[in-house]
Design goal:
Number of strands: 10
Radius of gyration: 37 Å
Number of helices: 14
Largest sheet: 6 strands, mixed
Helix content: 55-70%
Length: about 450
């Protein structure tokens, strides 16, 4: 679920990003991540290698199993620290991986150790501690050298006086010392001491300073990928978690639909049928005593039957309309649009019919959106477009109403509609500025 109004549009900055990079907090946070990463990676690497080696060597005895388990727990603790550093310094929100789960209802120490050793998350954390160490060394050296050299060269005119006062040289030396032809007298290299040389050195340092944050950002991008790939939940576990959440949403939606159908039957057709039975009973009693009154009562009962049948048809149409099954989305949506208070134009451009479930969800999505237009939008015209793109079915409704719709407000039903779409890997995007127009785009998977 996404809302266009939820996306903040940053104001354009007067200074280009390439010039602001060395002075932004992001650059210094990334440098701090690299600098603190080396000592931590050294501790992780040493501990992981020591525990893994000791555990593998002791596997011939029972002691190897708990040693390996302790090493893997240490790696998982290191992963917890690294996820926190990534959130604080790299703006990477990494979800916590799935915890260690035992197969037994009453877990003890040994079942828990076995589950820890079987967990792919534990071994991915171990792989991170091993792979991150050489990369931490490389990124630390490159980042510290670049920042030190670029800042030193940029500020060279401010500290150049150190050379003549304390070192006995006119300035920074460029090039190695050489020897004269007789190889006995040394010739000094070139010194940066004149104002043009000072300005050129500072300019070169400034150019390097502007490039350095982007190089460090590229280095930390590898850290981001490693944290996301090795320290977060596995794609399979993430998918299982999503399916569990979607299953709960589908179950809640189905229960709500059943309660609605029960309420409609109890308050509508069932009540009318009870009244009809009572009227027919009274008519039967008066059939011999007062035939005219009995005939009037039968006529009223006939009207009640018609109303009950109409309510049952409406209820059946709400469950799954026959026109949708027989003729497809185009005619079904046209019939649906005819009952809307706004003038609705329907365009359906599909090469063939999708799966019955997707077709039904699309129909009821349009029904919900048209009800919102009727109840809340105060629109005069609306448009519904449905088309297929690759393996997705796209639905877009546009109206010229007052706008201001949200997915969190009460009475709109858009939040529940978004949950229904999410349950089938769908998506709902809302763009409804105050004053209108309102554009709602729904995306569903195409299944035949």
């Amino acid at each position: 679920m996404a809302t266009a109004s939820d996306i903040a549009r940053p104001r354009p900055h007067r200074v280009p990003g390439a010039l602001r990079a060395p002075f932004e907090g992001r650059a210094w946070r990334e440098l701090l991540h690299v600098v603190t990463g080396l000592p931590l990676a050294s501790v992780y690497f040493a501990g992981a290698v020591a525990m893994l080696s000791a555990g593998a060597g002791l596997l011939i005895t029972f002691l190897g199993v708990p040693v390996l388990a302790a090493g893997l727990m240490g790696c998982r603790a290191a992963g917890w620290v690294e996820r926190g550093r990534a959130r604080a310094l790299l703006d990477v929100d990494v979800a916590e991986p799935e915890p260690v789960r035992t197969l037994q209802r009453r877990p003890g120490l040994m079942p828990w150790v076995g589950a820890l050793l079987r967990s792919g998350v534990s071994w991915r954390h171990l792989l991170y501690t091993v792979l991150h160490f050489p990369w931490a060394v490389f990124s630390f050296v490159v980042s510290v050298v670049l920042w030190s050299v670029s800042l030193g060269l940029t500020l060279y005119p401010a500290w150049q006086w150190v050379f003549p006062r304390h070192l006995g040289r006119p300035g920074m030396q460029v090039g190695p010392d050489g020897l004269t032809a007789n190889s006995t007298t040394q010739i000094g290299g070139t010194y940066l001491e004149s104002p043009p040389e000072l300005a050129l050195t500072a300019a070169a340092g400034l150019a390097l300073l502007l490039v350095t944050p982007w190089i460090v950002r590229g280095l930390t991008q590898v850290d981001r990928l490693m944290v996301l790939g090795l320290l977060g939940p596995s794609p399979l576990a993430t998918r299982v978690r999503e399916l569990e959440s979607d299953r709960g949403s589908v179950a809640d939606t189905a229960a709500a639909d059943l309660r609605r159908i029960e309420r409609d039957l109890h308050d509508g057709a069932q009540a009318r049928l009870v009244t009809l039975a009572m009227d027919l009973g009274l008519a039967k009693e008066k059939l011999l005593q007062d035939p005219q009154a009995a005939a009037d009562m039968v006529d009223e009962a006939h009207g009640e039957v018609k109303l009950a049948l109409q309510e049952l048809r409406d209820l059946a149409r709400g469950i799954h309309p026959a026109i949708l099954t027989d003729r497809g989305l185009g005619p079904a949506l046209s019939a649906l649009a005819a009952r809307c208070t706004a003038d609705v134009t329907v365009t359906v451009d599909l090469p063939d019919r999708p799966a019955q479930a997707i077709e039904g969800i699309t129909y009821f999505t349009v029904s919900e959106l048209l009800q919102n237009i009727t109840k809340h939008a105060q629109a005069r015209t609306a448009r519904i477009d449905i088309w297929k793109t690759h393996d997705r079915l796209l639905l877009q409704t546009t109206d010229d109403g007052k706008g201001g719709a949200t997915t969190t407000g009460t009475g709109t039903g858009l939040a529940g509609l978004a949950d229904r779409l999410t349950a089938v890997d769908g998506l709902l995007i809302l763009d409804s500025p105050t004053g209108g127009p309102t554009t709602i785009t729904a995306e569903l998977p195409w299944r035949v």
